[in-house]
Design goal:
heterotetramer; A: alpha+beta; 5 helices; 4 strands; 19% strand; C: Aspartate Aminotransferase, domain 1; Aspartate Aminotransferase, domain 2; 2 domains; 4-stranded antiparallel β-sheet; 13 helices; 18% strand; binds pyridoxal-5'-phosphate
Amino acid sequence: MSADLTELYQQVILDHNRRPRNRGRLPTANRVAHGDNPSCGDQCSVYLRLDGDRIAELSFDGSGCAISQASASLMTTQLKGKTTAQAEELYRQFHDIVTTGQTPGEISDLAAFAGVHTFPARIKCATLGWHAALNALKGDAAPATTELPSD
Amino acid sequence: MSADLTELYQQVILDHNRRPRNRGRLPTANRVAHGDNPSCGDQCSVYLRLDGDRIAELSFDGSGCAISQASASLMTTQLKGKTTAQAEELYRQFHDIVTTGQTPGEISDLAAFAGVHTFPARIKCATLGWHAALNALKGDAAPATTELPSD
Amino acid sequence: MPTWPDVRADFPILHQRVHGHPLVYLDSGATAQKPRAVIAALVRYYEQDNSNVHRGLHALSMRATDAYEAARARVAQFLHAAEPAEVVFTRGTTDSLNLVARGLAADLRPGDVILTTEMEHHSNLVPWQQAAQASGATLRYVPVLGANAEGGLDLAALDQLLTPQVKVFAFTHLSNTLGLLNPAADLCRRARAVGAVTVVDAAQSVGHGPLDVQALGCDFLAFSGHKMCGPTGIGVLYGRRARLDRLPPDATGGGMVASVDYEGARWKPAPERFEAGTPPIAGAIGLAAACDYLDALGREAIARHDQDLAQLAYERLAPLPGIRLLGPATGRRGLVCFAFADVHAHDVVTFADEDGLALRGGHHCNQPLMRKLGLASTTRASFYVYNTAAEIDVLVASLQRTLKFFRG
Amino acid sequence: MPTWPDVRADFPILHQRVHGHPLVYLDSGATAQKPRAVIAALVRYYEQDNSNVHRGLHALSMRATDAYEAARARVAQFLHAAEPAEVVFTRGTTDSLNLVARGLAADLRPGDVILTTEMEHHSNLVPWQQAAQASGATLRYVPVLGANAEGGLDLAALDQLLTPQVKVFAFTHLSNTLGLLNPAADLCRRARAVGAVTVVDAAQSVGHGPLDVQALGCDFLAFSGHKMCGPTGIGVLYGRRARLDRLPPDATGGGMVASVDYEGARWKPAPERFEAGTPPIAGAIGLAAACDYLDALGREAIARHDQDLAQLAYERLAPLPGIRLLGPATGRRGLVCFAFADVHAHDVVTFADEDGLALRGGHHCNQPLMRKLGLASTTRASFYVYNTAAEIDVLVASLQRTLKFFRG
Ligand SMILES: Cc1ncc(COP(=O)(O)O)c(C=O)c1O
Ligand SMILES: Cc1ncc(COP(=O)(O)O)c(C=O)c1O
């Protein structure tokens, strides 16, 4: 296996893929958003219970490749307890990591996705869950897509 | 000037082009048909006075290249007095001449158009007036076109 | 398995390494590679004859027109059409299907039925949804049988569905997901019996075996050049003369009009009526070169080669633990689609790429069928004249490594 | 006149003899010749990267997708569009204009007015006639001034015609018959003032000088690759983002759908929404190579070269006895159209061909304008980067011989 591929499918990603955290519908959710990648058929729904501006609980559901499933799973562990502003800031960091491969100073589980940057076609897999989560936060019921030309 | 071109623009063609015979509307016409070449914009109307099955008089009008005008002009001199069957037979001869360059045994003014066969794109010019005349004989008012795929 | 000793040498693209491995191109279902002869035909055209067609009397224009019309005649011969005028050059299968769907929609009324099948590519499905919406007609689907669609079309259901209300029956000749060849001549015969117009999507079949539109008895047939060794951007709508003559034009503009004034326009006869604007001239010439190439290999031999490789692949893949294979177990053509419950198609494809393999993962523009089968995506290996049995070994070995990695 | 010493060496097709004479290609208004760099880009694509785009994760597919999207970005830059997503790849100008005319027609009602001009190419005229017919809107024409249309558009009449009922104003940037450049930025500004959507036919202008869609202020702009040194079968519809986003899709099928089920479909955003089916991938890549080629020569320099040659031709032709020249005497671009009362254009073109000259004779898809001017056909000489002043000498000499032959 090549170094690039090992870097893409890091242990933490495989682990989240095999044993996804916070998977399934959240019965108490007061926000939900759905995302898809039209070209590949990946789908992801994110359920949030917002308590004021804070994410009290969240879960995800859907189907897709290891990268998209692991990313959504890991995301749910990172966003719990965060405000909208903090969530957006985390997404910015994550987006930087998957597009540049540079990881920020602080040690973060998100850094596991640094290997994505050598596989540009997979960036949209890694960001699918995040797009859905941000849309859910905005109370936007329109499906998220990671294939907008601006992406 | 090349031999092919001299053959295409024979003296008799130039003569008919410069001094077209039977040009203009025929006031006594009881049949008329219109033909065009959509791609090049050539147009030709043929007016007939049919006396029973015999062409008593005919004329043409229109605009187009020397080949199309001379051909229509010469045609009017050939079709006068002919029956429908004779006209169709003459057209068959003419079509053979312009597509094969072979002239029939009998000496005929139509042979002046033998040079057309080396310029396939001009065959439709040479046959435009004939198509209109045959349509007029059939009493068919639909415009003739020499660009049907079957041509 | 028929083998042509020099076929691979004809395709320059195959002789490259991907991630250090020899390229194994198993994605011809998406687009086929181009033999040198096709590329050379394009170069020759642009270097010697390039000119606009139809409206010119100078030497280049006459040469370009002759070459373009000769390409039409060549394609007509390839399809065994009754005459060249039955061949309309389009941009591709999708374009052809939109043209015919929009044209036929003009004659449809509420109460009429458009019949298609559950196994259609989006390009032979969404245009009919649009035609139904525009005309008020009802769209119905012939069901597909079997948990893995291995039973093909439900021909008993077809008998029920083919009522006199059916005005159009559109179906694929060869499914791009199931590798299944529909009994097109029989389907056309049945449709004709109720007076329905038949439209065959031949995108996957036309370059992969013998095809005779008169023997099929179809009214329309659509395909793309790029899936049969031809250039991108060229396709064909075949229309039986009597049907084509009745179809209204689609796009309008230069080249398809008999005359225009400020008040309106009159149309040229078919096929020009359907070819508005400067056509894809080089594309048509390249497509004719592809016809020459495939006929030289032999269409029967190509079909046999395709079938043998697909069968071999099916048999070699079937024992992989947890694999789910779509379509029939025997008699398949040119491709194999499969899925694992625990390893997603995109991961499979990414791992295969590391081994130099080009596979396709996704819904293959068959989303509704995938959903019906309870799948979001599958992996497809598709074969063509340049593929070999040894490449199937590479495929199987790669899949085994991938499964091991994900399953531990 | 700017000259580029090596330009002619870049075009393989020019170095041939026709009827024993060096080819003098004066038909670039119909289609331009292709430099080696464009042909090489096509060959490189087919020999190294050919694959289907968008839906693939293997190496070739990623390379093809990147090249296709890079071509989109390159064209956006060539037009100075705000973003690549404003560039829709089509089959050509005619295709682009049909797409936008059909899309806008969906929003038109009886009482609305579509405004166009008397100098339009059939491809920017018949689609609007169809849009008017489909929607019940009224089609109006801005008149052209002068017995030889030398006065261009009647801008005073335009003021009267541009009422608030005008929903669409479609006009050509550069007339393919008159060689006249319309004041497009001013026309767009006036149209915007009444809230009309502007559609610019840039088929003749885009490869012949600087062009900045944001400076023009147009909503849509259409052109073909083949007239600007690119391949046949590729074109562009530029749409300002806010407008393009509101345009409904035209052709439907694979690649343009966000999701499909048996009941219906949802669309992707622009530009994909307008690109159903496998796109003309090689064509887009070849078009990007043409952009590179033209930018390297310099767009300002090309415009000057075109203008100088057209002016020279006009001045050299004007003294020919009985000649009638169309369009303005000065400020013309890239082409000259002329007619003789006693010698038909097709005879002129046939005689010129004997001298190795490629001229175009006919109505140039401008039939209504020709009729208005009392002409059935004219001869056109059109120029591009590879033409020279010496070729105009050949043209004049040939015309003199032809006139002598017919007039005796
Ligand atoms: C002004 C103008 N508009 C439109 C067109 C049509 O372009 P195409 O035939 O490439 O679609 C042309 C060229 O023929 C043209 O000159
Ligand atoms: C069965 C089938 N129909 C239609 C199409 C669409 O062809 P194109 O994308 O060339 O228009 C394809 C290929 O993608 C196909 O496999």
